[in-house]
Write a structure and sequence with these properties.
By secondary structure, the protein is α+β, with helices and mostly antiparallel strands. It has a single domain, classed as Pnp Oxidase, Chain A. The chain is built from five helices and nine strands. Strands 1, 2, 3, 4, 5, 6, 7, 8 and 9 form a nine-stranded antiparallel β-sheet that branches. Strand 2 and strand 3 form a beta hairpin. Helix 4 runs antiparallel to helix 5. The chain is elongated and about 65 Å long. The two termini are 22 Å apart.
Length: 205
């Protein structure tokens, strides 16, 4: 990924927080038949050996067959993004651009088809998204035969991250007044994407 130094992020804590927040990943593998892509939420673990991603795909999705521990894979985590108008800058001339935040995690995932691993991944993911609900859905509460069928229909995977690249393109190459104008312009436009980006820019100013 092309990353000018002004936009490069190397802080592990900032990267971990980002991919935990934006954990619906685009997973791209180099398979014999060509590039294979799956979109899926993943679990992120920081272990003694480094960062590890874990998740599951449908058994009917042939992508898992490329996860043999040797094939290259890229997991892309997308954060907020939006068009930026040069009319928002205090300094001119200038051109339109697009601000965004993204993390690329490289690795060689391997299939984990054991029941305990798959059950733990499904349970962790549902707990993450259900825990704030008044009556959360829980895997353990489901009938045993239904739970068995559902878990048998998916395949787990685990990917130790071999390289990670993080790019927060937030106008760091512009003067402070131009960045302030960008945030104000995004907030005035009131689009959900723009407001999310403005908030992210304030947090990472």
């Amino acid at each position: 990924m092309y990353i000018p130094e002004a936009f490069r992020v190397v802080d592990d804590a900032a990267i971990d927080a980002f991919i935990q927040r934006y954990d619906f990943a685009t997973i791209v593998s180099a398979a014999p038949a060509g590039l294979t892509v799956t979109h899926a939420p993943v679990i992120i673990r920081r272990e003694a050996t480094g960062l590890v991603l874990a998740g599951h795909v449908a058994r009917g999705n042939a992508h898992w067959q490329a996860m043999d521990g040797t094939a290259d894979c890229l997991a892309i985590f997308h954060g907020p993004h939006s068009y930026v108008s040069p009319a928002w800058y205090a300094n001119s001339p200038a051109v339109p651009t697009w601000n965004y935040a993204v993390v690329h995690a490289h690795g060689k995932p391997r299939v984990r088809d054991d029941r305990s691993f798959i059950e733990a991944v499904v349970s962790d993911l549902t707990t993450r998204y259900e825990s704030q609900r008044a009556e959360p859905w829980r895997l353990d509460d489901q009938p045993a035969d239904f739970r068995d069928r559902m878990l048998a229909a998916v395949v787990g995977f685990e990917m130790p991250v071999l390289k990670i690249e993080a790019k927060f393109k937030l106008g760091q190459n512009r003067r402070p007044e131009d960045r302030a104008g960008t945030i104000a312009g995004l907030e005035r436009d009131e689009s959900p994407e723009g407001v999310a980006l403005a908030t992210f820019m304030r947090q990472h100013g």
